[in-house]
Design brief:
The chain has about 400 residues and is an alpha+beta fold. The protein folds into 2 domains: about 1-150 and about 340-395, no CATH class; about 190-315, 2-Layer Sandwich (Phosphothreonine lyase fold), CATH 3.30.2430. Helix content is about 45%, strand content about 15%. The protein is built from 15 helices and 16 strands. The strands form 4 sheets. Strands 8-9-11-12-10-14-13 form a 7-stranded antiparallel beta sheet. Strands 5-1-6-7 form a 4-stranded antiparallel beta sheet. A hairpin with an 8-residue loop joins strand 3 (about 65-70) and strand 4. Helix 9 crosses helix 14 (about 350-365) and helix 14 packs across helix 15 (about 375-385). The longest helix is centred in the first third of the chain and has 25 residues, at about 1-25. The chain is globular and about 70 Å long.
Length: about 400
């Protein structure tokens, strides 16, 4: 298969690139890199915000107790980064320029690495002033005397990343959208689409989902049909774990029929299905939401067994519960949590796509950048708290920069 051969080739390239990366790391001098805030951001105290920003960021200032923010250049689609009281002095020094060890001590190495991965900081290693994941990756390689580069183990995600890395797109938002929509099914066979849509609607007619009420069509999300559990509240306090079901368009009615029979045994607080032709051709056409991780994992196992024999379309950047990608898992950002702007309530795949696109963009900007666009993208995701070989969360704080 094309995706498998592509992944095999890229895996071999990653091994060679890791050796080259280690050699590059060993060229570094003994002096730690000098770190500065990236030119696309500026540090601003909360008290110095203009009226418009003070209003929009009021909840973050009051609930998180932030002392200021790293404000992105409005020309770029970047997230505002909150800065705590403890961190503000460190960022003031970074604005003027300071060394890696100072910031690692004050911010913590994990936080420092994520700020590089998302392009907030830039570092001069004596080989060039770089942002993105390359600085922490080189620092790790020099410290450990070894280097590895992540490669997705599922062919679909690997194909998506390496396809995106080859696209000549300079706009991060457009690139993230292309990554997000990867593996959207074609719409050439309109008759087949009409038949699948009619049959799916028939399966969902009357009280086909016992224990669930269909919600009115959402103005903000008109492309989905939502069903809420009558017994389980749907408010999300600590994030929402989700199971994706991704059958082919032709097998969607059968998959939905099997799902409806299994729903009483699955404690989803909400589930949704794509509406219309666009909805049923997208890869993540059916999603179930859970409050707890163990509920998601149990449901994924039940669904994987029940849906055997149904052809899969597959959802990139999700943790596969079946080898073909028919059932997979993710975790949306918490609503009302510590995130700001796009981070708050962001969907799992949108979050991953944004981080991948940012890593690709940062690798293309400077000369002599020692990571390829694909490698930079995958390392950006890993440093932000998700293991891209399996798309599983590495720690609980992965939604924070």
């Amino acid at each position: 298969m094309e995706c498998e051969s592509t992944l095999s080739v890229e895996s071999g390239q990653a091994e060679a690139a890791a050796r080259a990366l280690l050699a590059k790391a060993l060229e570094l001098t003994g002096a730690p890199p000098r770190v500065k805030i990236h030119p696309s951001y500026r540090l601003c105290a909360a008290t110095a915000l203009n009226q418009e920003l003070r209003v929009s960021l009021h909840s973050a200032i009051s609930s998180l107790g932030v002392a200021g923010f790293l404000l992105p250049d409005p020309r770029y689609s970047l997230s505002i980064v909150p800065v705590s009281q403890q961190e503000f002095a460190a960022f003031e020094r970074a604005a003027a320029g300071c060394i890696w060890d100072e910031l690692a001590t004050e911010l913590g190495e994990q936080r420092l690495e994520r700020l590089f991965a998302t392009g907030v900081l830039t570092g001069d290693l004596g080989l060039g002033a770089w942002s993105g994941p390359v600085v922490p990756v080189l620092m790790r390689a020099k410290r450990d005397g070894s280097a590895t580069l992540p490669v997705p183990t599922d062919p679909l995600s690997g194909r998506a990343v390496f396809h995106g890395a080859r696209l000549p797109i300079r706009n991060q938002t457009v690139l993230a959208a292309r990554l997000y929509l990867f593996n959207h099914a074609g719409v050439s066979a309109r008759g087949a689409l009409d038949a699948a849509a009619r049959e799916t609607d028939r399966v969902l007619s009357s009280d086909a989902a016992p224990g669930y009420d269909e919600l009115p069509q959402s103005r903000s999300n008109p492309g989905w049909r939502f069903f809420r559990n009558r017994r389980i509240a749907g408010e999300q306090g600590s994030g929402s774990y989700k199971v994706y079901i991704s059958p082919s368009v032709a097998d969607l009615p059968r998959a939905v029929s099997e799902l409806l029979e299994l729903l009483p045994a699955v404690p989803a607080h909400t589930w949704k299905i794509g509406r219309g032709h666009f909805g049923i051709t997208r890869c993540d056409k059916v999603c179930l939401y859970f409050h707890e991780k163990h509920e998601m994992q149990s449901a994924a196992r039940l669904l994987a067994g029940r849906l055997q024999g149904i052809s899969a379309q597959g959802v990139p950047f999700t943790a596969c519960a079946t080898q073909d990608g028919l059932v997979s898992c993710g975790a949306d950002a918490p609503r009302g949590g510590s995130g700001l702007g796009e981070e708050q309530g962001l969907s799992w795949r949108a979050w991953v796509a944004e981080k991948l696109a940012r890593g690709m963009y940062l690798s293309r900007t400077p000369e002599r950048y020692p990571l390829s666009a694909a490698q930079s993208a995958l390392w950006s995701v890993r440093l932000c708290g998700v293991e891209p070989s399996t798309w599983e969360v590495l720690d609980r704080d992965f939604w924070r920069h």
